[in-house]
Amino acid sequence: MQITMNRAIYILLAVILCFVFITSTAYADIDDSRSYNFRLTVNGSQTATVAVGDEIALEVMLERTDANKTGSYAMYSMQDEIVFDGDYFSLVQGSVEIAAGYEFNVRTLDDGIRQRIMLSRVVYDQTGVETPDSLLVAKFNLKALQSVVNIDIISKSYKVNSRTADTYPTEANDVTVTVTGPGPTTYGVTFTGGEGAKGTAPSVGAKEAGTRFTLPANTFTKEGYDFTGWHDGSKTYAAGAGYTMPDHAITFTAQWKKSTGAGGPPGGGGVVTPPVKPEPEKPVDVSITIKGTTATLDMEVEELSSLLKEIVDAGPVTLDLSDKKVSSLDIPSGALKAISEAAKAKEGLQVALPKGTIELDKVSLDELSKVTEKGNLKISIDAAKVLTPEQQVVVKDKPVYDIRVETDAGAVVGLKGKATIYLPCELKVGQSAAGVVVYYVDSDGSLVDMKAQYDPIKKMAYFTTNHLSVYMVAYDESLVKVSPADRYTDVDKVAWYYEAVEYVLEKGLFVGTSDTTFSPNTVMSRAMLVTVLWRMEGEPAVSSTNSFTDVAADAWYAKPVIWANANNIVSGYGDGLFGPNDNITREQMAAILNRYASFRGYDVSATNNLAAYTDASHVSDWALVSMKWAVGEKLITGMTTTTLVPQGNATRAQVASILMRYIENVVE
Predict the structure, then answer these.
(1) What would the pLDDT profile of 401-432 be if each residue is shown by its tens digit?
(2) What is the tens place of the pLDDT at every residue in 595-610?
(3) Which of 49, 65, 118, 173 could form a cystine bridge with 155, CB 3.0-4.6 A?
(4) Region of residue 357 (left: phi > 0; alpha: psi -120 to 50; beta: else)
């Protein structure tokens, strides 16, 4: 159904005028006698168990938690962030209920999997807004998509700002969900920064028991401290180290040590601590013989068993031949049985060859040991030398590998368990890990994306599969999202306005205030607003005369102001003055947008007597008709039910958010 631009303009005006009043404040020290929290619950509790296809009900409650609460408090702003894994849950459209005055925005994080819900409210009335001790901010449902055990839905620690300008931090409050149903059982993997740390947690997704994965780089910061590793409750592992998933959910906590230099960045600053280079898993020093490109393990079984008993205390049995000029390893059946018996219950065998590494989980290792009753098991990773014509068409000059496991009875194509494959992939300057992709290349040339990840320490792409065949490593620039907002050092990726700033930059409606700053919290000026409208019109050519003495001909806003003046959208203050750098007020916006609606040919006859507003007399005479029009169209309901606050202002971030919603929800 086509939506008229008349309605579009009215909605744009309503949103702007209801959201823009801002008063600058300087935050004072925290009043320790008061505290606040956001309490996230799932199905009314902190844990829930549901079936695949069921919906879970989440509620976010804003609570005053100190013992001295008085019944209500005056609030300036609040913000909460909830993160869930999009592989396991999806937001149920139409289920969202949000308290009046609060924002509910959803955004996909950079990993393309996790979904972030940002709840926020900013109040710009100088008296704040009276808020009860306990307020239900939001209710929404998520649908369970696949089975998983103990996966967390994260509610991050944020802040509440009071009328006295005190800032009160809140505590993280996660909930845990188990989803039962068909398919493999996976377990949640959670990363936390620990006490005093800031930042958004990395994600590796949920994992099946026995799956081998690489611990991610640290994304937290802690002022005055250096990151040292991830602790799983019993042992600390370096970022980049391999880890085998147990048969239960696991939480890794960042470990820190005092900085030895001048200290960490002030306030954390969003700096990602470089990963600590891990110690490689200790390989078993075995005797081999090499013939051509094949190495053969030639130790006596008893000697190998004794050696394995001494060495293998954690992790898979690792045979490292990466420095040998070989492409395959033969393991005699007796040695294979000894390795299978030595490996831990949930571990397996890792074989590193020059062209890559294969890691067989315990299920695969045990099954291969059974089928290799005599003879050898051959494990090979080499450049694929024989390709079908169809494969050659899609592969072209990209690196492609033939990965094989063979017994004397023939090739093993399908594994009973899983194998994690690591293939070499060194990024070029300017490339991002997000662009790395590995494809299974079928004989007919069709490609299957293996959803590979990238290990920046090993410089390898890795993926998990139960199918051994031909795989191609490629780089796809389209997978890398380079945000135009990232060039600006003052735009925080976790701020409520990030997506809106990104959007208006991509649409060309806004530009930065310098090469490196966007100034999201700067109040919108008259020139800025007129320029946005000019850009929305497609930046029409200007031939009219400049009527304003304070608008320089070479000013960045000169053409928009001249265009708006020529079309009776703005008229200035009189005496040849426009005031381009003055902060835009609500009543000025009402007048400008009312005239813009007239310029577009829309009906502007609606009116209201403003009798419901105690400050209606504060509206300037020249803006009264425009304000009555806006209220008459029910575009303005006031900052409160009885106040219009006609002299309020708006920040650039707020207007960016308004325009994004306007274009997405109305124009498109």
Answers:
(1) 999 999 887 888 888 888 999 999 988 887 87
(2) 887 887 778 888 988 9
(3) 173
(4) beta
